[in-house]
Amino acid sequence: MTTTDATASSTRAAAATALRTVDANIASFGTRYPADTTTDDRYPLRPARADLPDTAPGANYGWTTSFWPGQLWLAHELTGDDRYRDAAQAHVASYARRVHGGVDLDTHDLGFLYTLSCVTAWRRTGSVEARDAALAAADALMLRFLEPAGIIQAWGDLADPAQRGRTIIDSLMNMPLLRWATAETGDPRYATAADRHTAALRDHILRADDTTFHTFYWDAVTGSPLRGATEQGYSDGSCWARGQAWGIFGFALAARETGDGTFLDAALRCADYFLAHLPADHVVYWDLVLTDGSGAARDSSSAAIAACGLDELARLLPGDVGDRYRAAAASMIDSLAAGYAPAGGEPGDPLLLHGVYDMPKSVGVDEGNLWGDYYYLEALTRRLVPGWESPWWVAPAPGAVR
Asked: Which domains, ranges and CATH numbers included, belong to the chain?
């Protein structure tokens, strides 16, 4: 993202505010994990789960835990302060125990979990423990690949008839782990699965009017596409804001890694629809069917994700075309910094307020959430660190510790 002196100064101020909160949360959480969302604008520790053994409060389970060490790696890149690197690296052992112990692995979100926690650690420090854990996670993710349909099942036991053959648009952000595994090992199976999965979503989860289904079902035996639906959107036919943001970012990443112009076109379609449905302050409501005057809740996390995706997309486009998307991303981040980021600095504070996790289930409504915090800090890092290397990009194995 290009910035003037004035915007660079305001972005540095926003990052400094965010880092005060990261500092407070290091002291509060350490190597434990906060809940997915705040409660009354403050993160509690992740509660223990009766269905998982040995999960004391703050244990590593669920799909969002890596957004905490992800923030620590970003803080290190923003400051060069090794205490952030050391704090992030301290989480690797937990992810190694999780994947090697088979704890809560029945999810496509292994990409989120292990890209930010372990692939980044391997790239930044050369940790063999992190590399081995990330490759084990890629292998676990490949177990969810349904060959006839060419998709990776989103949730649940593969024998569960309610989940069999189902994927969701968020899954696009889990494909970088598989592409990294191919780059790392030379085994093409991982990237082939990622490319087939992305193509299936391009063809079926992205609708003709440039909106996206949240979730889509295939026949797991024949591979036939069945139907789209929503899980967290306003209705099956509406456009869940966070899903559309995942579409921008995920298709842009796929285009960058594969050179496939159809993935770039899919990212552009998602982006243009998203931008055409922004409210006055550039921070979307939780579903894009909702507009100013609706009284609906905003989802700050959707804006943060979209801003990162728009910047990613802009890097693939020439001159003035890319600048349009950079400017849109900058407007979103400036609005988040001005109106949605608290002063922070207290243990348990979020980086962003006014997010929505799951409106239909009344979970995390008008609260902070870990992914919104992470992507807000990533967007600030994109603006402030020249030549920043995205954790979502495939990169060769490190030749030396950096």
From this structure: 1-30+241-390 (1.50.10.10), 34-143 (no CATH), 146-229 (no CATH)
